[in-house]
Amino acid sequence: MAAKSGNRTVIYVVVGVLVAVVLIAWAFMMFAGGSKTKVAATYTTTVQGSVVVAGKQAANTVDVYEDFLCPICGRFEANFSGELTQAINSGKIQVRYHPVAILNRATNPAGYSLRAANAGVCAAEAGIFPAYHEKLFTEQPSEGSAGLTDQELIDKANQVGAPATFANCVSSGKYSKAVTAETLRAAKDTSLRAEGSNGFGTPTVTVNGKRADLSDDNWLTSISK
Amino acid sequence: MLLADQRHSWLDVVGTLARLGLAAVWIISGGIKAADPDQTYVAVKAYDVLPAPGVAAVAAALPWFELALGLLLLLGVGTRLVGVISAAVLLLFIAGVSQAWVRGLHIDCGCFGGGGDVAPDQTSYGTELLRDTGFLVLAAWLIIRPRTLFALDDVLTRGDRESVGGGGS
Q1: Of all helices (H) and strands (E), which one includes residue A30?
Q2: Out of B44-48, B95-99, B117-121, B164-168, which region has the weakest mean confidence (pLDDT)?
Q3: Could you say which of A18, A70, B40, B57 would form a disulfide bridge with B33 (CB–CB 3.0 to 4.6 Å)?
Q4: pTM across the whole model
């Protein structure tokens, strides 16, 4: 009898600890997910080359380098897009979105990164950038997949109210050259590199020209100006 | 009698090393995952076997589950049971990596490494499987012979060393 109760204690302890750990982790996940606010964008965008400038001139400039295929960029958007939108709406920051194409080889056929980046700039030209940008990230295709076709990129834009000119902008690759040039510029810009890294990656974010540490959840809220 | 005792203590040392080794594996692996939840989310998603809510649930719980397994092993609580659970988790990992290999997915974020993804010849499925199999051997030892030194199991099941289940036999 003594043996049984001893073994039982051990089993209870092990199972109890493991179940508790999983439940606590899930509770935290729910809590973090629930505290994220969804904010509608009220700002307007302009296009400079291939850079999408969101909001009016502000005391702080935030530069965001993203590849629409990059999974961590998708996480970045899921975590911070609400806060970013709020800060742009309120005029605290102006964001310069740099859609870049560093993962062209990660789809089959290659090149989704570039076509998506081009479509992103097209969306700014069409006045639907905030909704379209968000949509491409929440419905992001996986690395190693086929990505989205031009037609799928156009369909998604139509769902958020794209004008008729959008389709031509996508299929002609109107901003592809500018995106490629911006990607090369960013890749050579050593101020965009993480400490100890000898290359450029996405997402990269700078606040007033200084690289932000995205592992710090308060990187955006701690901007003082 | 004396010979038998010495043989036992030698096996106990090997078992202790297996226990602490597997503990280190889980604590390091769980610690890395806990420190970078977004990377963990992306890694789980890259296996491409779960729907989005499942990815979120696994990515949220896995680091802490691994750390808990490591802690239980470190303390030596329920060594055999934790060995069984460790083996089950490792088999799941091996299945996940194998299916990715077979399907030709290249599991790498491609986001932080110098502006590009890992070339197909740079994936290391073989090494990963070999490594996981090595860990599985540690778990197997603890399942077959869970008796180790400095384990809390000795305290928890004191008074009966002949018991078959649990940890202290």
Answers
A1: helix A2-34
A2: B164-168
A3: B40
A4: 0.76
